[in-house]
Design goal:
about 300 residues, alpha+beta, 2 domains, three-stranded antiparallel beta sheet
Length: about 300
């Protein structure tokens, strides 16, 4: 959509960073601030503005070192796009393509960072629904960041996200059935940890329904069986994440961090400020009288926005 050297508003396109199912991402320069940024352009430009704003508005709720930061949403010359911080580094997918597998210590470090980002999103009632290596960026300094919230959903006063969406090798059984919950992201984290130590996701099959069938039956070879260097304790953490039943998994990403920290014998570090803020947010009214998506006033006790249909 954009060409090298093209200017759109105050941004000058440098090169393409890649394209996915929902949009294309470009490296650009903010001419006013003289910094590099990442610009995402949704493929479906014909959508109403409030629908185009869904992803950036969700991402705008999040402020965490392990989540790519949203900077702005713009519409220039009838083209809608949003601007994010640019991370110098590679996706976890590209790292695994080169390295095949990571040593256990590196995998644990990355997973703790991923779980920290997911914990922050869940505290803000946001489920990602597409956690996979291509949506994870590892900076040159080793910082791990979650990106691409195009499939994310806001779960507030609703039991699950109903849209059947995601990447089959990383989807929990209930997600295939259109009943994604926060623990569905836990399953995806387990798939990623498995892949980092084994070289591929737990279940590989060209037929998504076969993946679903095996996931429902728990037909997953434990990582320790495929790689003897995987410690027994880590094997147990992975398999608990990949439990077919939601109630048998960890319920919060923080529990994964705690388990991995205890296995290493490290002293847990508790971010008391984040914990306090999390409890405060949990007591705050979800919509504060307006729809989180279209920002229009909501009727008293409304659970669904009468204007855009989003859960409130």
């Amino acid at each position: 959509m954009f060409l090298q050297g093209q200017k759109i508003g105050k941004y000058e396109i440098i090169r393409s960073l890649g394209s996915g199912g929902f949009g294309s991402v470009f490296l650009a320069k903010d001419i006013w601030l003289d910094i590099k940024v990442a610009i995402k352009v949704p493929h479906k430009q014909s959508l109403e503005l409030y629908k185009l704003l869904k992803e950036p508005r969700l991402q705008a709720f999040l402020d965490h070192p392990n989540i790519v930061r949203l900077l702005a949403a713009e519409k220039v010359d009838k083209i809608f796009f949003f601007v994010m911080e640019y991370i110098r580094g590679k996706t976890l997918e590209k790292i695994l393509q080169k390295e095949k597998i990571l040593d256990v210590s590196t995998a644990i470090d990355m997973m703790k960072q991923l779980a920290a980002g997911a914990e922050h999103a869940h505290k803000n009632k946001i489920i990602h629904r597409d956690l996979r290596p291509s949506n994870i960026i590892v900076s040159e300094e080793g910082q791990v960041k979650i990106t691409d919230f195009g499939t994310s959903a806001w779960l507030q006063d609703v039991p699950f996200a109903t849209t059947r969406i995601g990447s089959p090798p990383y989807m929990a059984p209930e997600q295939f059935m259109g009943k994604a919950v926060f623990a569905s992201d836990i399953y995806s984290l387990g798939c990623i940890l498995y892949e980092m130590m084994i070289g591929q996701p737990p279940i590989i099959d060209p037929d998504p329904f076969r993946i679903l069938e095996k996931a429902q039956e728990g037909k997953i070879t434990p990582p320790r069986v495929r790689n003897g260097r995987v410690p027994r304790e880590i094997d147990m953490v992975v398999m608990r994440c990949l439990a077919p039943k939601v109630e048998d998994r960890y319920q919060r990403p923080f529990e994964i961090i705690k388990a991995l920290t205890e296995i290493r014998g490290e002293k847990p570090v508790k971010n008391e400020i984040d914990d306090i803020l999390g409890r405060i947010r949990a007591r705050e009214p979800a919509s504060a009288g307006v729809c989180w998506n279209c920002r229009r006033p909501l009727p008293t006790r409304a659970k669904v926005c009468p204007y855009c249909g989003e859960s409130c």
